[in-house]
């Protein structure tokens, strides 16, 4: 503990260090809590100039159950959150999806970097309660755009994409390239 000076390091310090290394963590609780088994899909959609160009499933499992062991006996329970780890590298972002220990990693979100100083930012949706059969957005990873008037790269928009639908639409309409991560609960 002394080697790491753990008594002097806060959660904010750890998050700042991860941010400096290009790593972001996102956690979404499942609400309302599950009381029966459903199909769970985690999806990634890619947009270029506002048009959907690719969509794929990035689900580590096919339902809302997770399994664990106690004294070599297997048990099952309902998941209570979905976590994401994003690691920015030069021309891509590597995304890991973790659903209660079931993990898919190395999902590559390729950046379309066409201008100097262009960048991408993560934003999240705070209103993520599931409704059966409805695609619920969780995260957006969007590119900056060039503002001719002020001669700058810009990525203006709300941090919580759930609150202001008009501002969210404006952000995504201005971004020439973005990804949306969502989930869907069905039968």
Number of strands: 13
Strand order of the largest sheet: 3-2-13-10-9
The residue ranges in which pLDDT falls below 50 over 5 or more consecutive positions are none
Give the class from helix and strand content and strand pairing: mainly beta
Estimated helix fraction: 10-25%
Q: Sheet with the most strands? A: 5 strands, antiparallel
- State the order of secondary-structure elements, H for helix, E for strand: HEEEEEEEEEEEEHE
Q: Number of domains in the coordinates?
A: 1
What features would you describe in this structure?
There is one protein chain. By secondary structure, this protein is mainly β. It has one domain. The chain has 2 helices and 13 strands; from the N terminus they run αββββββββββββαβ. The strands form 4 sheets. The protein has a 5-stranded antiparallel β-sheet with strand order 3-2-13-10-9, with no helix packed on it. The longest helix is centred in the first third of the chain and has 10 residues. The model has no long low-confidence stretch (mean pLDDT 95).
In short:
This protein has 187 residues and is mainly beta.
Layout: helices, strands, pairs:
Elements: H1 11-20, E1 23-29, E2 39-48, E3 51-57, E4 65-70, E5 73-78, E6 81-89, E7 92-99, E8 102-110, E9 120-124, E10 135-143, E11 145-147, E12 152-154, H2 165-174, E13 177-186
Write a concise keyword list for the protein shown above.
4-stranded antiparallel sheet, mainly beta, 2 helices, 49% strand, globular, 11% helix, 5-stranded antiparallel sheet, 187 residues, 13 strands
């Amino acid at each position: 503990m002394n080697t790491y000076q753990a008594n002097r390091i806060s959660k904010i310090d750890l998050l700042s260090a991860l941010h400096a290394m290009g790593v972001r963590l996102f956690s979404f609780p499942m609400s309302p809590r599950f009381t029966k088994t459903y199909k769970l899909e985690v999806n990634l959609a890619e947009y270029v100039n506002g048009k959907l160009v690719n969509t794929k499933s990035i689900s580590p499992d096919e339902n809302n159950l997770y399994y664990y062991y106690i004294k070599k006996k297997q048990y099952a329970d309902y998941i209570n959150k979905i976590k994401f780890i994003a690691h920015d590298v030069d021309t891509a972002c590597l995304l890991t999806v973790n659903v209660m220990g079931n993990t898919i990693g190395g999902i590559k979100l390729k950046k379309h970097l066409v201008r100097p100083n262009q960048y991408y930012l993560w934003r999240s949706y705070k209103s993520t309660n599931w409704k059966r059969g409805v695609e619920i957005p969780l995260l957006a990873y969007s590119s900056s755009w060039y503002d001719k008037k002020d001669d700058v790269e810009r990525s203006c928009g709300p941090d919580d994409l759930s609150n202001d639908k008009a501002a969210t639409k404006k952000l995504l309409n201005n971004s020439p390239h973005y990804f949306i991560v969502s989930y869907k609960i069905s039968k």
